[in-house]
Design a protein that fits this description.
Layout (H helix, E strand, L loop, with lengths): L1 E5 L3 H12 L3 E5 L3 H8 L10 H10 L3 E4 L2 H7 L2 E4 L14 H13 L4 E5 L7 H12 L6 E5 L9 H6 L4 E5 L5 H8 L6 E5 H32 L3 H9 L20 H14 L5 H25 L6 E5 L14 H11 L3 E5 L4 H5 L6 E2 L12 E4 L11 H7 L4 E4 L6 H6 L3 E3 L7
Parallel strand pairs: 1-2, 1-4, 2-3, 4-5, 5-6, 7-8, 9-10, 9-12, 10-11, 12-13, 13-14
Antiparallel strand pairs: 6-7
Helix pairs in contact: 1-3, 4-5, 5-6, 9-11, 9-12, 11-12
The chain binds uridine-5'-diphosphate-glucuronic acid.
Uridine-5'-diphosphate-glucuronic acid binds next to helix 9.
C-alpha cells in the first residue's frame, strides 16, 4: 500500500522503515529539511540497532523516500500516519500543538479519501479532536476516517518490536478503515485488536503506566530486601515464574527514565484529574521512582562520607542500554547530583557521549570503559549496557584509589565481587 508517515523521530522513522521492509511504498515527511537531507543521503539522526541498514536497503529498493512536503505526502498516499512529538507541559499535561498543526496541514492537502492514523502517544479523546479539526479545515469535498494505532516500541529494540509485535491495536470511530488497517499489518502476523478510538488511546497510557508501576513495585521491594538482607533478583525470579506476573520489567534499578515513562505517567495522572478521578496509585509510582534515586545517592554519600572533592567514574549515560538517548536519563540525573555535591566525574557510554555533551559539562569523557576508573575514588554503574559485564575488573581494581563500586543496575554477582576484593554496593541485594 502507499503510506505516508509524518514525523521522522524514533517512532516515525522506525514505523516508516519497517512498513517499507514489509513491502509497502512509504513516504516519510519531516519539517526539518536538514534531517530530510541527512536521511536522503543515507545518514542517521539516531542510533537504533539495525535501523540504518534497513533504511538504506529500502531506499535503494525504491520503497522508502523522504520529503519535507506534507502536501506531497498527503496527496500521494491513502493512509497518513501522524508520528509527531507530544511533549510534556510544565503542569504534566500534554502539548498537543504539533498534532493539531499537522491535522490542519493534512486537512489542507487532502485531495481524495484518506485514513488518518495517530501513532503519537496522546490523551484519550484526541482522535475525536483530530477528526473535528480535519472536518473544520478541509476545503475539498472528500471523506476521511481517523484511527488510533498506538505504538509499543522500546528504544534499542524498536525494529524487532515492530517486526514481531505482541499485538496491534486499531482504535476506530467507524468500521470503514478496518480492512485497510488490517491489510497494512497483515505481513507481521500479529494479533490485531480492533477497539473504539478512546479505548485505543487509553491502552497506550494504561500500558506504559502499568510497566512503570511494575518497576516501582520491584524497586519498593528492593528497599525491603536491603532492610532484611534478602536478594531482589531472587525475589523477582520467584515472583516472575508465576505466569500471571511475568519476570519482565522486574529489574530493580536506580529508577526508570527516558522520554516515555516519566512523561506518560504525569500525563495519565493529569488526564485522570481532568476527568475527575484522582489516580493516586500512579502518584505513588512517581514518588517511589524519585526516592529510588535519592536512596542511591545516599548510598554513595554514606559510603564515601564526603562526596565533595572526590573523583568518581561513571559507566553509562543513556537512559538504558542499546540507545544514544539521554532524555530524562537517570544516569545523567545521577551525574548532575554528584556534581552538585562537589564530585569530579570521569564518564563513559558506548553510544550516548555525543548527545550527553549537550547537557553534561565539566566532566571528563573517557574513550574506553576500562580506563574510566583511573585515579577515581569509586566507580558507579548507571546504565545496563551488556558490555559493562565484560569490564576488566582486575584493571578497574588497580585503577581505583579504593576498590569501591556502586552498581545501580545489578550487573555483577555480589559474592564474586567481594571475592575480587571490591566493596560492592548494588540495589536490593543484602544489607545496604
Ligand atoms: C517504553 C515502553 O517499554 C514501550 O513499550 C513504549 O512503546 C515506549 O516506552 C513509548 O511509549 O514510546 P522505552 O522508553 O524505550 O519504552 O524503554 P523501556 O525499555 O521501557 O525502559 C524504560 C525505563 O525503565 C529505562 O530507564 C529502563 O532502564 C527502566 N527499566 C526497565 C527498569 O528500571 N527496570 C526494568 O525492569 C525495565
Amino acid at each position: 500500500m502507499n503510506l505516508t508517515i509524518i514525523g521522522t523521530g524514533y517512532v516515525g522513522l522506525v514505523t516508516g522503515t519497517c512498513f517499507a521492509e514489509a513491502g509497502h511504498k512509504v513516504i516519510c515527511v519531516d519539517k526539518d529539511a536538514d534531517k530530510v537531507k541527512l536521511l536522503q543521503g543515507g545518514g542517521m539522526p539516531i542510533y537504533e540497532p539495525g535501523l540504518e541498514e534497513l533504511v538504506q536497503k529500502n531506499v535503494r529498493a525504491g520503497r522508502l523516500q523522504f520529503t519535507s512536503s506534507t502536501q506531497e505526502g498527503v496527496e500521494k498516499s491513502e493512509v497518513v500516519f501522524i508520528a509527531v512529538p507530544t511533549p510534556p507541559m510544565p503542569d504534566g499535561g500534554v502539548d498537543l500543538s504539533f498534532i493539531e498543526g499537522v491535522s490542519r496541514e493534512i486537512a489542507g492537502a487532502m485531495n481524495s479519501y484518506k485514513i488518518i492514523v495517530d501513532k503519537s502517544t496522546v490523551p484519550v479523546k484526541t482522535g475525536e479532536k483530530v477528526a473535528e479539526t480535519i472536518k473544520r479545515y478541509c476545503k475539498a469535498k472528500v471523506d476521511f476516517d481517523v484511527v488510533s494505532n498506538p505504538e509499543f516500541l522500546r528504544e534499542g529494540f524498536a525494529v524487532d518490536d515492530f517486526m514481531k509485535p505482541d499485538r496491534v491495536v486499531i482504535g476506530v470511530l467507524s468500521q470503514r478503515p478496518v480492512p485497510a488497517m488490517k491489510e497494512i499489518y497483515a505481513p507481521y502476523q500479529a494479533p490485531i485488536i480492533v477497539t473504539d478510538i478512546n479505548s485505543a488511546e487509553l491502552i497506550k497510557h494504561a500500558a506504559n503506566s502499568f510497566l512503570a508501576l511494575k518497576i516501582s513495585y520491584i524497586n519498593a521491594v528492593s528497599v525491603l530486601c536491603e532492610l532484611s538482607g534478602a536478594n531482589v533478583q531472587e525475589v523477582a525470579q520467584g515472583m516472575g515464574m508465576d505466569a500471571r506476573i511475568g519476570r519482565k520489567f522486574l529489574d530493580a534499578s536506580l529508577g526508570f527514565g527516558g522520554s516515555c515513562f516519566p512523561k506518560d505517567l504525569s500525563a495519565f495522572i493529569r488526564i485522570s484529574e481532568s476527568m475527575g478521578y484522582d489516580f493516586g496509585l500512579l502518584k505513588e509510582v512517581q514518588k517511589i521512582n524519585a526516592e529510588q534515586m535519592n536512596r542511591f545517592v545516599k548510598k554513595i554519600s554514606d559510603t564515601l562520607w564526603v562526596i565533595k572533592g572526590k573523583t568518581l567514574g561513571v559507566l553509562g549515560l543513556a537512559f538504558k542500554q542499546n540507545t544514544d538517548d539521554v532524555r530524562m536519563s537517570p544516569a545523567i540525573d545521577l551525574c548532575q547530583r554528584l556534581q552538585k555535591e562537589g564530585a569530579r566525574l570521569r564518564v563513559y557510554d558506548p553510544q550516548a557521549m555525543e548527545k550527553a555533551k549537550a547537557i553534561l559539562s565539566d566532566v571528563t569523557y573517557v574513550a574506553d570503559m576500562n580506563d574510566v576508573a583511573e585515579g577515581c575514588d569509586a566507580l558507579v554503574i548507571a546504565t545496563e549496557w551488556p558490555q559493562f559485564k565484560k569490564l576488566d575488573l582486575d584493571k578497574v581494581r588497580k585503577n581505583l584509589a579504593h576498590p569501591i563500586i556502586f552498581d545501580g543496575r545489578n550487573l555483577f554477582d555480589v559474592g564474586e565481587m567481594e571475592r575480587l576484593g571490591f566493596l560492592y554496593k548494588s540495589i536490593g541485594r543484602g544489607k545496604a
